[in-house]
Sequence to fold (839 residues):
Amino acid sequence: MTTRHTVAPKGQGGRGAYRTIGEAIRAASPGDLVVIAPGTWTEHLVLDRAVVLTAEHGRGSVVIAPPPGDAPAVTVDGPDCALHNITVWGSDAGLPAVSVSSGAGLVLEECSVEGGRVQAKGPEDEEGGTTALVLRRCRLEGARLAGLHLAGGVRARVEDTAVTGVDGTGVVLSGTASLDAVRLRLERTTGSGVRLRGRSRLRLTDSVLAGSGRAGLLLEDATEATAGESRIETPGAAGVHLTGSARAELTDCRIRGAAASGLVVQETARLSASGCSVADAGANGLLVTGAGEADLADCRIDRSAFSAVHLAGTAVGRLADCRVRGGSEHGVHATGEARIELTDCGIADVAMTGVSVLERAVATLTGCRVAGSGAGIGIGSPTGSTVADSTVTGTKEIGVQVAKGATASLAGIRISGAGAAGLVVDEGAEATVNGGWVENCAGSGAVVWTGARPEMSGLRIDRPGKNGVFLAEGAGGTFTGLDVTRAGFPALHVAAGADPVFRHCRIRDCAEALGTDEGAKPVLEDCTADGTPLTFGTPAAAPANGSPGTASSPRTAKSADAGEEPEEENLEDLLGELHELVGLDRVKQDVGSLVKLMQTVRRREEAGLPAPPLSRHLVFAGNPGTGKTTVARLYGRLLKALGLLRRGHLVEVDRTALVGEYVGHTGPKTTAAFNRALGGVLFIDEAYSLAPALAGNDFGTEAVATLVKLMEDHRDDVVVIAAGYPGDMHRFIGSNPGLASRFGRTLLFEDYESAELVSIVEFQAGQHRYELTAPARTELLALFDAMPRGEGFGNGRSARQIFQEMTERQAQRVAELSAPTSEQLISLEAQDLPHPAAR
Fold:
């Protein structure tokens, strides 16, 4: 039975009240309750039995202040002791105010400890038992060295407690101590927030460590910690720092404003983090050195002052589905013999390189995205890094670089909008490129320097600002299935002494197919330029007169052995190709009528009769993705088959290719683009942008005037097709009196119906040897029916994008099958369709 003992000053508390707390404790039996009247009690209390001390009038009404000396205000020597609603003052901030001895137990509830620490010591071995400490809704303030110190075999739990204003470390665990902290608020410490030593253990939940002078959470030796849904804010050093063989697991934690690195892993320590974020670190977001290892999943690292992720020594880093954004240096930087694995990660807007691999480090990238960085991916290690199914977009410099002496394998990589070359293979580097796309880079699509001999296959290069592939002196390599389109310079440039082998390569719509320096030795096997065989060097058979042969033109319409014309395209086949296009019934009819008209014109000319007035220039009005470019290319080939154009090739341009940036620049720029189209078709996409609604001094009007003059000067040697939105093309035609007379016919490209979009997907599937199941076809039709037809709708482009997404989802699905059948490999099923909400 619990007995109540009252402690009150003389004259209070009634008969039987004790005048000191110590007297009441000595009179109490285990399990008794000691109720203390308000006031400041100057005592050294020793709790050597299971008693509960409580303030009669609630929190803050009772203060225990020890007399001068170095003894704690409260010493606990027995089990199951408790203090409720009591404030304890320490005699010296550097000494314990509350001390729990080995094997004892204490619960502090609604208590405050000021000017001294709470200290609990336990036995160093398990045979000595444990010391138990519980703090609920407490406040520890103003201590020196440590606010809460747990040593040896202590088992402690802290709930809804604040530790603040400590001149030292907030919480220290050593030996085999363990702490379970829930909603701990730790702030304003000159040392680390929480420090673990020895073999101590920490579990931190829903807590905040703010304003520490050193690391927020420091793990040393063989300690372990788990932290969930917690925040570490503005630490004076690292946010979380692991050394020795420490282990830490972080879940849904936030580290912000660390003066040094956000996460640090050293020696043989191991860190695992999931759903965490590191922001505004004063150094690295994640730093792993020595033989440390870090595994991050679904994490974010934003705005690091140094490289967001830095690995050195023999460190290992594995990041999956992580995001890096902003930073003054690299996104990911691996040096020494470190290994970094990045899967489905995104890196954006870092000042230097998105992923940098130096010395003998190894990187493996799968499904990653680098955007808006200084450079994209830089491989400078000879130990063999791999990049697969990844994209690099909008870099200020090179997209992907395999540096001098480095080794790398690239598969399915896409490089878009690089501010310099798309892909660079430096001197002596070894690179294998299997598939991929390089587009819209300001420099050459791929650059191969002296001594490098890469193997590239299935690479597509579209609209490079300079060459498609540039090979420096003495470079080489094998290029198979290369596809270069719309290059502003020669598609392939081979310098002196370079001896590359090009097999089954296609050059289309480029300023020139092949440019060579004296002494270049390219080998061309089954290559074409706009459908014409591409050859170089001495013909295989000598001329009939036996005189030495001269080098044939790099781009020639004649075969290399007999000087014969290649087989012309058949008009009926081309018309059949036109009618195989999905939809576009009205356009097909209009083009068919034009062909018949031009056939008649051709026959009259052959008969010596005057030709009727005829303008071959056209306006293609339609929304994006309605097949305008495809029909324009066919139109050029049809005119060549009719003998009305010399080459029939297509040169596609937009405003940026025609309009200059300063006075005197536009005319030459427009003329250069026009000259590339001579003998074929000049296709001006978004032509209305040359005549903006508020033109003012816009240079587009100069480009239009130049075009009108060139169309007149070369009326029989070029066809111009102006394309754009239906509602905007009348403004273009009306911007110059000469345009209306030259563009007498407009072809309207209507949006595709849902069934036609399904047919486009099926056509794409057939080309790539896939088959849609009946349920997939039904679901696909419903998807197109539900798709908004606003400005973002891409018509055929949307259909092609959906097909690509279906193949990617199918690949993920089939990859999980242990032994897929041939039917499973080619079948596109309903579950492979993208979810409508994802579009």
Q: What stands out?
A: The longest strand covers residues 162-173. Residues 538-567 have pLDDT under 50 and may be disordered. DSSP finds 13 helices and 70 strands in the chain.
